[in-house]
Each structure stands twice: as C-alpha cells, then as structure tokens.
Amino acid sequence: MANERKRPDPCSFIIFGATGDLTHRLVIPALYNLAASDLLPEKFCVVGIARKGMSSNQLTESLKKGLHKFATRPVDEAVAERLFSCVTAIEADPSDPASFDAMNERLDKLEKARETGGNRLFYLATPPSAFLPISRELGRTGMLKENGAWRRLVVEKPFGTDLASARALNAALLKLMDEHQIYRIDHYLGKETVQNILVLRFANGMFEPIWNRNHIDHIQITVDEKLGVGHRGSFYDATGALRDMVPNHLFQLLSLVTMEPPARFDAQAVRSEKAEVLQAIQVQSEQDALYNSVRGQYRAGRIGDTEIEDYLKTPDVKPDSTTETYAALKLTIDNWRWAGVPFYLRTGKALTIKRTEIAIKFKQAPFAMFRNTPVDRLSQNYLVISTEPTEGIELQFNTKVPGPTINIDGVEMKFRYKDYFKAEPSTGYETLIYDCMIGDNILFQRADSVEAGWQAVQPFLDAWKNAGGRDLQSYKAGSSEGPEAANALLTRDGRSWRKLG
Ligand code: BG6
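Above: inputs. Below: predicted complex with 6-O-phosphono-beta-D-glucopyranose.
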C-alpha cells in the first residue's frame, strides 16, 4: 500500500511454477493490470522457470492464452505485447544443482541486457513441498545475497501444515535470507475491504471508543464458499478446511479487526500489532478445543442447477476420509480490550452462497425504557464488514416504525464500494505484487504472526486427530448454514449466527 503512485525499481520477476494454474489464473493477469496502469518498472523482465525443453515462445503462448482466459478487464493487445515481449523461459530443477548455477548465469546476462540492475523477485508459485528445495538452491548459488541490489522471495500458502512445520520452514528460510526479504503472501490482504478495516477503525473517530469488551458482545467471522472441492481432491483431503482457511485468511481478518492501533502506518508497527494480538489468542486444551469446535463434511446436494457429489466421491479423496470441509471455532483473546468477548469463526465449502463477512455484534441497549410499550424486543446492532457477495460495510440499528404507537424495527445502512468508487476489476494480487516490487511488506505475514496463527489452531488439529472422526458432522451440499451442530456452538451461549442477508 504505497503512499504515492510510483514505478518500482527495475527488476527481474522470476516465477517458479510458471506453467501452473496460479501463474496463469492470477499472477500474469495481475502483472497485466499493473502494466495497464503503468505500474510495472520501466526496465523489467519476466522469467518463467519451466520444465525441460520448453522454449520462451511456448511459455509466452501459454501465458497469453491464460491472460485472455483470466483477464479481469478487456485486454489491450499493445499492453499485452509489451508485457510478453520480456518473457524468457529458463529451466531449473532443485534436484539438479547445476541447473541453478546455469540459471544464475542466464539471469546475469538477461539483466545486463534488460538493465534491471540485479534486483530479483523470486515468486514461488509451486506446491509447498518445493519451497525449501528451491530456496536452498537459491541460497547456495548466492542468488539471495543483497549486494547493492535487492533480492526478495514470495512464498505462497500454505506456509506449513501445523505449528512444528511452520516453525521449521521459518527457521530454514531465515538461515538463507533475512526476514525483510521474505514475502509470505495471503491473497486476502489484497482485497480492498480487508485493507479498509484499518482505515475504518483508525481514520474515524467514532468506532474506536466502542471497539472493546465494554460495547462489543461478540464477533463472528464467516467465510462460506459455494464451490465444492472439485479437482483439488488430493490437496484438499490432506489439508481440510481448518488448515486451508483459518490460520491464514480468517486470522488475517481477525487480527485486523482486533489489533491495537499501531503508532505509525508502516510495516514494522502494523505487523507487530497484528502478531501481538494473534499471540494473545488463548491456546486451548485439547478437551476445550473439542468442546469449542464443530467440523463437518458435505454430502451430495445441489446448488442452483449444479449437482454436487458427496465429498467422499470426489476424485483423489479417500473413501473413508474424515477431512473436514466445514469448520467452526470459538476463540477468546486474552488481553485487556477483548477479555470475555467470544470470537466465532466458521468456514465451509459447498454452501448456498459465497459470503465473506466480519459481523461485530454490539451489546444490547437497556430495555427498561420500553417496558410498558408494545415493543417486545430490540433487534441486534451489527456492524458488518463484507467482501462477498459485495464489498462494503453495513450498520444495523433500531428505528421507530412510523405511526402513532411506539414500534421499533431493525434497519440497515449500507455502503457498497461499487456505488462510490469506480475501480477497475482486479485479481486482488496487484497491490501485493506491486508492494513486493517497491519493498513494502506491510501486507505480508511476518514469521511470528504465522507461528502465532498455527499455535492457536494446533489444539483443534490435535483434538480432531485424536478424536478419529467421532465428532465429524455432515451437512448437505447447498445448505445455508453447514452442520446443525455449528448452531449449537452459539445457542449454548445464548447467541446465534447472523442469518444470510
Ligand atoms: C484459498 C483456498 O487459499 O482461498 C481455497 O486454498 C479457497 O480453498 C480460497 O477456495 C478462497 O479465496 P476467496 O478469495 O475466493 O475467498
């Protein structure tokens, strides 16, 4: 999130996994959008690390096709040509160290010709098993040394599969380079509404005074998805909803909503506050974790006209799998601001609609004044920050129904991004890639935050593993709320999930 629009330094953008889905679907369309907004460096080249025998022309053709398929706006051929004119394919395989030496030499030559000054951004758009082998080769060949030029490494999620593996990955990467060179990406931080949480909280005088346990009853974070697991059976069955979504995406939302105000709007201050609040999430015992969570798996169903087959029939999913496609948790944050305020988080696949929202429920006003009136209840005061189905903010409050008697009803005040701002549709990766090129890591996760996130979910992972599937619930694909037991998680506290709007 730059303070001014400037072109980044000259650099080479080196993508590992250049022929993969992520590169075609998101990275190249984002680079195109940056090019269309004049936000790529003047001296720039894209290097795709491809399989043996793939020529630069073949790679370029494949990326071009990808751009036309996944572009978020009409493609201006002149801009696309400029971008693709600087694509080079290089082969490198971490199991063949000589290929990395050769790659280093090719990059040296390429950057002399392109005058990129030796700045290199390595983007790991690969399966996680390749993160470390590639990084080790980059380290061995000296490509991560910053001698006058910068060297940065973008690491996609998942960053580890539990606390121990995340710690090990951090430790191994930090032996090869400095923390400031590592950009652990979470695409949720590329979303406008997510970035806006800080502005909403800290650029307005009216919210912060009530943003605490004295006024907030509880907070719900919902990330519902319509899609089933589809073709990702092998990855998903080994991962599950909790690992896939919670320590990363949902905790990004949670930390922005709950962090203390940073002293400055800079990476060091913002990331420290985010890490601090994640570290304050109470680490539960396994027994508590089981009591405070619900996991579910979808059975066959239908969403609109689409039939969704039973999760267990998904290709590459074990027929007796206990992997959850839905997870709901209750957490607490052990600090002065949030003591006693429950946080309910839920995420699931194959639900009626795609919905991503943070709902902040304020405490009820005293009812006393309305005791001798026809009013029998006050509706709930919610502030809802949502990115799906629409990006915006909504406030729900009580108002008098017109008429001679006192009657009260809940109404909504809605702000939608698209009503006020005419932003070009984006992939969500533009800001993140641009920030990486200008060296601003405010939107990227630091090692301590990643570990704090895993630390908080580890008891749930352990509890579910040890329960061996006994607690696994099911829900019908296309249902609006996931398993019934997820409702009980709140009703036992006298609360309920916010209904679909
Ligand atoms: C990814 C998960 O990180 O996020 C996917 O691996 C999930 O399973 C996706 O579908 C959700 O992202 P978004 O932006 O569509 O909410």
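The mean pLDDT is 94.
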